[in-house]
Amino acid sequence: MPLGPAQAHYLGAVMRLGPGARIEVFNGRDGAWTAEIEAVGKRGGSLALVAQAAPQRDPPDVWLMFAPIKKARTDFIVEKATELGAARILPVQTDHTNAERIARDRLQAHAVEAAEQCGGTFVPEVAALAPLSGLLDRWDTGRRILWADEALAGPAATLATLPRGPWAILIGPEGGWSAAERARLGALEGVTRVSLGPRILRADTAAVAALALWQAALGDW
Ligand code: SAM
After folding, report:
1. How far is the CA of 123 from the centre of ligand 1 (A)?
2. 85 and 193 share a domain?
3. Distance 209 CA to ligand 1 centre (A)
4. Last-in-domain residue among 54, 78, 94
5. Could you tell me the residue range of the domain that residue 30 belongs to?
6. Residue nearest atom 18 of ligand 1, based on CA coordinates
7. Within this chain, do residues 107 and 158 fall inside the same structural domain, yes or no?
8. 127 and 88 in contact (C-beta within 8 Å)?
9. What is the C-alpha to C-alpha distance for residues 211 and 218, in angstroms, rounded to an integer?
């Protein structure tokens, strides 16, 4: 199995490993594998797979849609969503979103690191930034939406009675939802509007809280 320059640099220069050293690897599809370093240099190297160390573990079918905020907090959302078992991460532009672009490669690399840190074998895809309105235009209503609306702040939602199956959690930006978005989401089939408790949470905290509530009630916790 070939090693790219960044992987070879990490193993050889950062971890100071050489030929014969054993490491654990995963590709997001085939579980975790023990592998032996065959060669490692500045431009690349190679690994030999030895044996499967763990089976593939995919998360439940829950997506996280959120409006990107400041860089460090967006990084935090991607990292925590991966640890909490989001199957896909979709940054969305809403009426009050500030960000016009995201560093998708950097965010995807954060997802890989987070999966490595928590012993995962699955890496969620970080999708390109897309307008929420366009996503809703072509939404497959077979995937329900758990819409966190700060206007509902109060006793937290009980999700256990909701149907199982594919879901997407939707978290708004620092500026919250516009009246037009509230009207659109309120009229869309398969949308459940929920409270995340009596306090207004920052968007990054809200993403973590909503994923935890969903996983505990409908997911694999
Ligand atoms: N600027 C808004 C305000 O002052 O009311 C707050 C927006 S909040 C920082 C960002 C997002 O987190 C909201 O759009 C919502 O999706 C979610 N959120 C935060 N607290 C919530 C709560 N208690 N219940 C439901 N959603 C919440």
Report:
1. 27
2. yes
3. 11
4. 54
5. 2-54
6. 150
7. yes
8. yes
9. 10
> Based on the domain organization, do 124 and 141 belong to the same domain?
yes
- Rounded to an integer, what distance in angstroms lies between the CA atom of residue 201 and that of residue 132? 21
The DSSP string of 140-171 is -TTSEEEEE-GGG-SSPPP-TTSPPS-EEEEE
CATH number for the domain that contains residue 179: 3.40.1280.10
Please tell me the total count of domains within the chain. Answer: 2
CATH number, domain at 8? 2.40.240.20
Rounded to whole angstroms, the Cα distance separating 61 from 169 reads 11
Between CA 4 and CA 45 the distance in angstroms is: 7
What residues does 34 pair with on adjacent strands? Answer: 24, 51
- Residues belonging to the chain: 221
Q: List, chain by chain if needed, residues with CB within 6 Å of any ligand 1 atom.
A: 148-150, 152-153, 171-172, 174-177, 195-197, 199-203, 206
Backbone phi, psi, residue 72, to 5°: -65, -35
Q: How confident is the prediction along the chain (221 residues), in pLDDT tens digits per residue?
A: 999 998 999 999 999 999 999 999 998 899 999 999 999 998 899 999 999 999 999 899 999 999 998 889 999 999 999 999 999 999 999 999 978 889 999 999 999 999 988 888 999 999 999 999 999 999 999 999 999 999 999 988 889 999 999 999 999 999 999 999 999 999 999 999 999 999 999 999 999 999 999 999 999 99
